[in-house]
Amino acid sequence: MSRPTSRILICLAAADVLLHFAGSGRYGFFRDELYYIACGQHLAWGYVDQPPLIAVIARLSAFLLGNSLLAFRFFPALAGACLVLLTGRMTRDLGGDRFCQAIAGIGVLLAPVHLAFGSFFSMNAFEPLFWMGCACILLRILNGGDERLWLLFGAVAGVGLLNKHTTLLFGFALVAGLLLTRERERLRTKWFWLGGLLALAIFLPNLIWEAQHHWPQIEVVRNAQKFKNSPVGPLQFLGEQVLFLNPIALPVLAAGLAWLLLTPRGRRFRCLGWAFLIVLAVVMALKGKTYYPWPAYPMLIAAGGVALGAVLSGLRRKWLRLAYPALLAVSGIVMLPYGVPALPVQAFLRYQDALPLARSVKTERDSDGRMPQLYADMFGWEGMAATVARVYHSLPPAEQAHCAILAGNYGEAGAIDFFGPRYGLPKAISGHNNYYLWGPRGYTGEVVILFGERSELVKQMFGEVRQVATISDPYAVRVESNLSVYVCRRPKAPLAALWPQLKLYI
């Protein structure tokens, strides 16, 4: 008989939404959010560095909810709450009772990485939902569900691929996990193959776009590994997994993996344990960022809820049964300021000095700053637009009419595009990622306001360069602090001819 979803799990999902809303408006837009919003104004079947779904959601958010910070962060918060519910559902389908569901729900809700990715608008907010949607459907099949559920699996996987290409890794890991167990017979049904074809059909438009544009995603990944991502050794990689998930949650993770791979009760679901290990191994082998495996962890947390819940339920004293979930919750709350921007800046800096958990975590080489990268990338964007606006409006009206604003990266260009209208600015141009494909917007380069990354190199393309301002914010990442703003004239060639030299896929 199917066990109902526990009320405490519903309460945890509601708490997830409230926590994210409580902190979502405290700082500002994250760099990538501004870029995705810009992509939403240029809908296509693909982008240089991501599939199309995030741009569609950005466009939908703006249409339904408006252009406020809270509006763009509504769907990520909702996705986080749904992940808590899905994890509880998975715990139930693995045989866990309400107590087990509560342990799993707390484990997901208060994992710092979950709190972080639900705090801003990005593909990472939705990725775990697609992965766990696929895992839940597979669980239903393993529990004797109709084999036609493979069609639903293919639909969810296909849409997941339109969100982020790493869904392909999870699909591969699940299939490999099935092949490594006696459940491999599931792969022989026609419904499995029809589900795979459905996923391919949904993903195909983006695949065609990638081929037409010479596979830019591959170039972005290679350049990021060479020039952008911070190198991480195996021990640091594993250590950051524990930190991202909450060190107190380690017994849940270990119990979950052991339950899936070693126990008779977990034998039917062993493919999930293998799938997790394959995801972890592939990300480590390819030197991916340390948060990349996160979407696979709710499977482990669900299984760990079943395993640990059974052990704790056997204790005679009720307070002993509740001690670990309480400790897990308290430790999660202690780490909460690192996932949700709930504290004012100065309060957070004091908190960070007292509990320097994120000091050693650095996913990109130029992410140094007083604040952790997650928060540092939320500062300085509107001030940047205001400074550029002062320069723009200081130009003679005749020059303003054909003045281009050339930004160094998509965050800087996105800031001009988003905040610029309130300051009377035209749209920005940039050679970074999809801004490169959008081109110079018809500007000739006669007058250019130049700022941001690589400006020292780009200004050499002009015969007249004058520094007129400096952009600075004490809490922004290092590369966005103390940026010189130049007015450039007399280009050495028309901007359209210079454009290929500005290309930067990273």
- Low-pLDDT regions: none
* Spatial sequence of strands, sheet with the most strands: 2-1-3-5-4
Number of strands: 5
Distance between the termini: 51 Å
Mean pLDDT: 94
Largest sheet: 5 strands, mixed
Radius of gyration: 24 Å
Instruction: Name the structural class.
Output: alpha/beta
Quick description:
The chain has 506 residues and is α/β, with parallel strands linked by helices.
Describe the structure using short key phrases.
globular; single chain; 5-stranded mixed beta sheet; alpha/beta; 506 residues
Structure description:
The protein is of the alpha/beta class and 506 residues long. The chain has a 5-stranded mixed sheet. The mean pLDDT is 94. The chain is built from 25 helices and 5 strands.
Strand-helix topology:
Layout: H1 7-24, H2 31-40, H3 53-65, H4 69-72, H5 74-93, H6 98-109, H7 112-117, H8 123-142, H9 149-163, H10 167-179, H11 190-212, H12 216-228, H13 234-245, H14 250-262, H15 270-285, H16 297-313, H17 318-335, H18 345-354, H19 373-376, H20 381-394, H21 397-400, E1 403-407, H22 410-419, E2 429-430, H23 434-438, E3 447-451, H24 455-458, E4 462-471, E5 483-491, H25 495-498
Parallel strand pairs: 1-2, 1-3
Antiparallel strand pairs: 3-5, 4-5
